[in-house]
Design goal:
This protein is α+β, with helices and mostly antiparallel strands. The chain has 5 helices and 7 strands; from the N terminus they run H-H-H-E-E-E-E-E-E-E-H-H. About 45% of the residues lie in helices and about 25% in strands.
Length: about 220
């Protein structure tokens, strides 16, 4: 093989694979790619650090005026609920029955009923089946109460300042003990009302006992 043929053989690979990169070229390209990735990452980090971050507003950053307004609204609502609860409690207490007495059957074919509660006296007069008339008056409007008793039966007379046609109301044919009990209870109620005695805090049993003792006549 002559010198010219040897030269051709040494140049043959480059002629056959003209586009194949060398090892040096591959290393340079890989270095450029790594440099580009690093540069892009660093740029993204800088943008993230410089970007303004908006955080959700917490309760501590709520304006003081708004917080105070909410507190006042809550306080007013709570006060209204407490007043409503006190009103319901007062109404319930006012209707607590201290005594309820009927006239004697069959002496009265349609028995009448006297009901005494914390604030008023109600008298139900019956004249026929499912027929009745009711009169109620406050304890403050009762002027006087008296009772008449016999061996078995008794009667009760209540005088009030609000009667339109008569100045007293009489209930006959009560059992003797019921007439005396009602007289003492109502009389004690009148005394407590006229002297502004606080009885709202007493239970029903305590109030009955207290009013009854107040209404007992001193010569009984």
């Amino acid at each position: 093989m002559n010198e010219e043929e040897s030269l051709k053989m040494s140049q043959a690979p480059n002629d056959i694979y003209p586009d194949q990169p060398s090892t040096y070229d591959r290393l340079m390209r890989q270095s450029k790619k790594l440099g580009g990735v690093a540069t892009t990452t660093l740029h993204d980090v800088k943008e993230a650090l410089n970007r303004e971050i908006t955080l959700p507003m917490s309760h501590s950053h709520t304006p003081l005026r708004d917080r105070m307004s909410r507190r006042r609204t809550k306080s007013r609502h709570q006060a209204e609920l407490e007043r409503a609860a006190q009103l319901r409690q007062t109404v319930q207490k006012a209707h607590e029955v201290l005594a309820s007495v009927d006239t004697v059957f069959p002496v009265t074919l349609f028995p009448d009923t006297i009901v005494v509660d914390r604030s008023k006296i109600s008298i139900r007069k019956r004249s026929f089946f499912l027929t009745s008339s009711v009169i109620s008056f406050r304890i403050e409007d009762v002027l006087n109460v008296t009772c008449g008793v016999g061996p078995i039966f008794g009667s009760l007379t209540i005088a009030s300042r609000v009667m339109s046609s008569i100045d007293h109301f009489q209930i006959d044919h009560l059992w003797r003990k019921d007439a005396v009990f009602l007289k003492n209870l109502i009389q004690g109620h009148i005394i407590a009302s006229n002297n502004k005695l606080e009885t709202d805090q007493l239970s029903v049993e305590e109030m009955i006992e207290t009013l009854y003792e107040l209404g007992i006549d001193s010569d009984s």
